[in-house]
Amino acid sequence: MITAAIAILLITSLPASSAEVTRLTNINNSYPYPAPDGGRIVFQSDRTGVAQIYTMNADGSELRVLTDDPLGAETPVFSPDGKHVLFAAYVGEGNNDVFIMAADGSGRRRITGGPGYDGHPHFSSDGNRVVFNSDRTTPDRDADWNQRWHEIFSVALDGSDLRQHTRCQSVCTFGSLSPDGNKVVYRRTIEGASFSWFLTPGQRNSEVFIADADGANEVNLSNSAAFDGWPRFSPDGGWIVFASNRAGPAGVGQLYLIKPDGSELRRVTDGPWSYVQPAWSADGSSLYAKQGEETNDHEFGDIVRIRLAQIYLR
After folding, report:
1. Do residues 134 and 116 lie in contact, with contact meaning Cβ atoms separated by under 8 Å?
2. What is the pTM of this model?
3. Which candidate, 287, 246, 293, places its Cα nearest to that of 268?
4. What is the three-state SS of the chain?
5. Domain count, the chain
6. What's the confidence (pLDDT) of residue 9?
7. Nearest CA-CA partner of 267 in 225, 305, 220, 222
């Protein structure tokens, strides 16, 4: 069994009918990504107070920490051959870059550099390129993170051959290329009536978009006033998984599948828990996600595997 985060509760008054319960720990195990053979999972955890990169066996055993970054490391993924881990790490105030290391944490090497935020890295399906979002083209680096221009880029593994895949001039993050490399899917914020993660009304809407690899022919796939994000292509390119809070309640997301042409929207998860940050198994039969709870006061979660019934993939 994959182990669950332990929440320590303090009961500060009696009797039970009027007890006040205060959560003392809010551990977040998040952004899971399975190795191609399914034997290990890499993920991000703040169990020591600062997010670092860990791996564990698929049953939750043999936990290992791979990073020790003072400012934190985040959003890891395995390479298609399982030999390397790609991740982002803070190297200074407001400066986040993309790194690669061996699956055991050795041989760490920096791929992107310069001021600003480079994050949410993914491999291309052949393992030869790194896709990431960056605010390097933003006209105002002093603007709040959500007011900068974040675009989807890719580079070769040595950091050369930089290519820009979107020209959103807004927040476009969590990008990945289709298995054939012809399409890019990503989360984009657009102007318009919307609901935040906690269902409060606003005017900046988070949607899932797909476009040609050069950014042309952009299409809004999720097309909802809800918060939609964390999209990823299935290994065969036939589906895109994403998370959305369109079903409510406040602070709760569920996983959905949709075809790249925007058809056949299907809901995968249900219940009171929130499911976000999905990743596919290499054979496309399972999803891995963070299952948790989030309120205005706390956030905690852990990693789950969701085996897909054939009804979802037909």
Report:
1. yes
2. 0.92
3. 287
4. CCCCCCCCEEECCCCHHHCCEEECCCCEEEEEEECCCCCEEEEEECCCCCCEEEEEECCCCCCEECCCCCCCEEEEEECCCCCEEEEEEEEECCEEEEEEEECCCCCCEECCCCCCEEEEEEECCCCCEEEEEECCCCCCCCCCHHHCCEEEEEEECCCCCCEECCCCCCEEEEEEECCCCCEEEEEEEEEEEEECCCCCEEEEEEEEEEEECCCCCCEECCCCCCCEEEEEECCCCCCEEEEECCCCCCCCCEEEEECCCCCCCEECCCCCCEEEEEEECCCCCEEEEEEEEECCCCEEEEEEEEECCHHHHC
5. 1
6. 40
7. 222
Domain contains 187: yes
Residue range 250-295, pLDDT digits in tens: 999 999 999 999 999 999 999 999 999 999 999 999 999 999 999 8
pLDDT: is 270 or 12 the higher one?
270
**Phi/psi zone of residue 56: left (φ > 0), alpha (ψ -120 to 50 degrees), beta?**
beta
Residue in the block written with tokens 């999209």: 231
CATH code of the domain covering residue 127: 2.120.10.30
The C-alpha atoms of residue 206 and residue 188 are separated, in whole angstroms, by: 6
Q: Which residues contact 244 (CB under 8 A, 6 or more apart)?
A: 222, 224, 226, 227, 228, 229, 253, 254, 256
Q: How many CB atoms lie within 10 A of CB 38?
A: 16
∠ CA 219-143-232, rounded to 5°: 30
Host domain of residue 243:
9-313
* Contact indicator for 147, 201 with CB cutoff of 8 Å: no
* Sole residue written with tokens 């790609």: 86
Q: How far apart are CA 129 and CA 217, in angstroms?
A: 22
- Assigned domain for 15 exists: yes
Residue 294 lies in a domain: yes
Evaluate if residue 8 carries a pLDDT over 60: no
